[in-house]
From TrEMBL:
Pfam families: polyprenyl_synt. Keywords: Isoprene biosynthesis, Magnesium, Metal-binding, Transferase. It comes from the Bacteria. GO terms for cellular component: cytoplasm. This is Farnesyl-diphosphate synthase. InterPro entries: Isoprenoid_synthase_dom_sf, Polyprenyl_synt, Polyprenyl_synt_CS, Prenyl_diphosphate_synthase. Its cofactor is Mg(2+). It comes from Rhodanobacter fulvus Jip2. GO terms for biological process: phospholipid biosynthetic process; terpenoid biosynthetic process. PANTHER family: FARNESYL DIPHOSPHATE SYNTHASE.
Amino acid sequence: MGPALQALILRAEQALDHRLPPADQSPADLHRAMRYAVLGGGKRLRPLLVYATAQALGEDGPQLDAAACAVELIHAYSLVHDDLPAMDDDALRRGRPTCHVVFGEAMAILAGDALQALAFEILAEDTTRQTDPATGMAMLRTLGRACGAEGMAGGQALDLAAVGQPLTLAQLEHMHACKTGALIRASVRLGALAAGGDADVLQALDDYANAVGLAFQVRDDILDVEGESIVIGKTAGKDAAAGKPTFPSIIGLDASRARLAELTNAALAAISPLGERGALLRELAHYAAQRAS
C-alpha cells in the first residue's frame, strides 16, 4: 500500500485504540480480550474503504472515524466467533494464537458480543452528534443489515451448512456475498452516506464494493491453496482439509485466477466516473486482488 493508505491505517489504529476500553479497567479480562482481538494486526481494509470512499466524494471529517471503527469492530467480532471450535475451529489468526486459545472460549464469546455492541454504540453516538438524523439512521441500518441474517451471520450459516456439500458457482458466490461481501459493501456505503453521495453515486459504489468483496474472497481461497501459514497469518490448506467449498475446489485454480481478474476489472469500471478522485479506491481494488496475506 502507498503512503496515503498507510496514513489512513494509522488514523484507524489510533481511533480504535482510543475507543476501546482500557485493558486495566474492570472487567479487565474482557477488555484485554477485546483489545487483543482488534489491535493485533490486520489489513484494516474495511476502515480504509470508509475513508477512501468518503474522500473520493470530498469528505474527510472526524465523523468518518466512528464509521471506520464500527466496521472494524464488527469484523473483529466476526473473526473471534468464526475461530471458535463450534465454528471454524482455528488456532491461528493474524500470525498469532486466536482469541479463544489465549483467553478461553467463554471470554472469547463475550469479547465478540461486546465488540459488536461497541460498534453500534460508537456509530450511534457519533452520527447523532455529527450528521442529520436521516443519514444517521441510514448508517445504523446499513451496518445492522450487513452483520445480521441478511449479511455476515447468514453467510456464516450457509458456510457451515455447505461443508462436504457440492455447491454451484452461483451458490458459492451468494454465500460469500453475504459472509464476506456484506461488510465490505457496508464499509463503502457508510463512507458514501457520510459524504452525502447521491443515488447514482451510491449505485456505482455498490457495484464496486460487490466486486471487491467477491474478489477478496477469491484471493483468500487461492491463498489457502498456494500460501504458507507463516505468510498468510492463518492455517493454510485448512478449508480443503475441512471439506469446505472454495473457488479452486469448484472451478479450479486457473479459472479462479480468471474470475479474480474479471472482478477486479468490474470494480475498476464501476468507479471510472470518479476519475482521479477514485485513486485510493482503485488502489484498494488492486490490493484485494494481489495481496499475499
